[in-house]
Amino acid sequence: MDDHPAMPARLLRTAGPLPAPGTLPHPYPFETVAPRKEGFVEREGVKSWYAQFGDSGPWLAFAPIFQIANTHLLRGVLPYLSQHFRVACMDLRGNGRSDRPATQDQYSFDHYYADFVAVLDRLEVGRAAVVGISATAMTAIRLAYEQPHRVGHLMLCGGWMERRLEHPAAVEAVQQHLAKMRSDWPAYLDEFFTICFSEPHGTKPYEDGVRAGWAAEGPHVAMGLAGWMGHDMRPIARQLACPTLVVHGDKDARVPYSQGQMAAKAIPGARFVTVGGGGHLLPARDPVAFCRMLLEFTGVAPAASTWVRAMARKRKALFVSSAIGLGHVQRDLAIARALRRLQPDLEVDWFTVPPASTYLEREGERVHPACARLANESRHFEDQAGEHDLQAFFALRTMDEVMARNFLVFADVLREEHYDIVIGDEAWEVDYHLHENPELKRQPFVFLTDFVGCLPMEEGNEREAFLCADRNADDIEHVARYPWIRDRAIFVGNPEDAPEQPFGPGLPVIRDWTRRNFTFTGYALPFDPASLADTDALRARHGYRRDEKLVIAAVGGTGVGAPLLQRIAAAFPRMKKQVPELRMVLVAGPRVARESLPTHEGLDVLPYVHNLFEHLACSDLALVQGGLSTCMELVATRRRFLSFPLERHFEQCIHVRHRLHNYCADCAVRFRELGVDELADRALAAMHAPVAYKPVETDGAERAARVIASVLENRHWAAA
């Protein structure tokens, strides 16, 4: 990047180092949905990329956005909307997968409009709801005027109505913009998207915007902007006859709020929605609000629905369980069973994805059918991982597409069905978006977690430290402003399990804040350790011999642990040579290919073990990845183990190790510090090490259930 000006400090701190200019995100444009159709339309030698997402329902068409962005900027809304519509979208010439013509004559409003019409023709779009965002509102208005048969609904979001250049000051301002685009593209991107996302804690959409702009080049975008100038849509807007929704933020510093007012006044019968405190790009900053407005406006609803009279409704809970690993869902099932003992008439529906949903179905539980529409969290984390390395904070930060899509599916379920309570175990998408959209809370919500606070892992990484603190501050402000969103917040542990360090500069200490905002239940085990105390009986039940030394290696429900299993397998021959009676079982889990692991005599590879804790409880040694659930189960059954926390995984390296230290069970080993031989020797030594763990609570699930039941009963305020 030597041929480019220096990067602005704010850009580097928030968006981080950028790839080579012109690089698109991968996968493009979205992570959680693939196009049903895609291709290129060509006009006068310029190719424009288009795609259709979704294969049923009415048509929805996004007019192509100004060249400083591309289709990726719709990642918070389009994957979900494609479940209700056939969605047509495209990259405007100058960005994305479309061509970047080199001359100004190829960048004009007429070309932009004709490209859009060509895509609609190629996809055979008849009548559609059409969305115009920012400058491309002018394209949508023109389509509604010139082809009224094609536009059933028109939605303008933060849109320009006119870009006239009648005054010298306006001409001078545009010339300054164009000059900066050409001379200092990084500085222009920083300035542009800082203006667009003026709302607090908008660092992630800012980053996405910068990276979308970096996929183009300043001179091309300057020509693109020039093509939008000199147009006034008011005369034709006054002649529109389609239902129109105008949405505009009253703090929009990019397209003045007066432009939205102008549109609402000009278009006959237009409905005007003001986003109070809102900036410029609502679909990127507030995807849930955007989708709700669009669905309500277009009238999209299920073909059939049922309303049940209040006293005829069964008592039901919706349990949202994080699917990252299997530990959450096992403890959640223990809590749900304890809750049923307290409330026998309560039905529980589960809201999660594989492998958690597979486990629940095997246990006879009902997984809600809408879960088929959810994006998979585990897949996202696997895609972010390296060799036994997962920058967990950035994996969470980049999960915003998954979170928006899954929350919107969750909101669909709660709109159509009646639940007495929602319970969410690390249901970050539900918790975040309910705080951002508090009007959507329809029933009591109990939030569970076993860690609080994102913490930086890389010493000297100012960006990571800044963004961790920003995320923590956002969460803290949410809880302070809307304490009633969480009817109860349960910390699955004890006060001392929260670390005594600050959330970030100027922010509270994690333990102090957690004490004020959570109730503590101790750890929630999915079993009673006393029931697993007879090791010989366990071995007989699961096919292990009494006279063999049993080592079990397991890495949870994601594929992130594959490198660890491979190294353990490579160490097995050395271990077997020193301990001939050794038997090792590698539990590959549901997401690690069995054939990726070697075979040796005495080494078994299993694809999945139901209720793995029973096998771990009769082992002589366990080699595990470092997740809290498995480690705590080993502590509870007093098994020897080594844990291998993922590099840069703040939860495993800080929160989990801190808790295990409290139980005198910090057996962590750094994966990168042990070669195959060292791993073998360390494992054999651990097999004979003394165990002095503190006992783990055995009533955590019951205590959590009692807290949840008290919310259902809603009598904490009543006199005895």
TrEMBL record:
<dbReference type="GO" id="GO:0016758">
    <property type="term" value="F:hexosyltransferase activity"/>
</dbReference>
<dbReference type="Pfam" id="PF00561">
    <property type="entry name" value="Abhydrolase_1"/>
</dbReference>
<protein>
    <submittedName>
        <fullName>Alpha/beta fold hydrolase</fullName>
    </submittedName>
</protein>
<dbReference type="Pfam" id="PF04101">
    <property type="entry name" value="Glyco_tran_28_C"/>
</dbReference>
<feature type="domain" description="Peptidase S33 tripeptidyl aminopeptidase-like C-terminal">
    <location>
        <begin position="234"/>
        <end position="281"/>
    </location>
</feature>
<dbReference type="InterPro" id="IPR029058">
    <property type="entry name" value="AB_hydrolase_fold"/>
</dbReference>
<dbReference type="Pfam" id="PF08386">
    <property type="entry name" value="Abhydrolase_4"/>
</dbReference>
<keyword id="KW-0378">Hydrolase</keyword>
<dbReference type="GO" id="GO:0016787">
    <property type="term" value="F:hydrolase activity"/>
</dbReference>
<feature type="domain" description="AB hydrolase-1">
    <location>
        <begin position="70"/>
        <end position="186"/>
    </location>
</feature>
<dbReference type="InterPro" id="IPR013595">
    <property type="entry name" value="Pept_S33_TAP-like_C"/>
</dbReference>
<dbReference type="InterPro" id="IPR007235">
    <property type="entry name" value="Glyco_trans_28_C"/>
</dbReference>
<dbReference type="InterPro" id="IPR050471">
    <property type="entry name" value="AB_hydrolase"/>
</dbReference>
<dbReference type="InterPro" id="IPR000073">
    <property type="entry name" value="AB_hydrolase_1"/>
</dbReference>
<feature type="domain" description="Glycosyl transferase family 28 C-terminal">
    <location>
        <begin position="554"/>
        <end position="692"/>
    </location>
</feature>
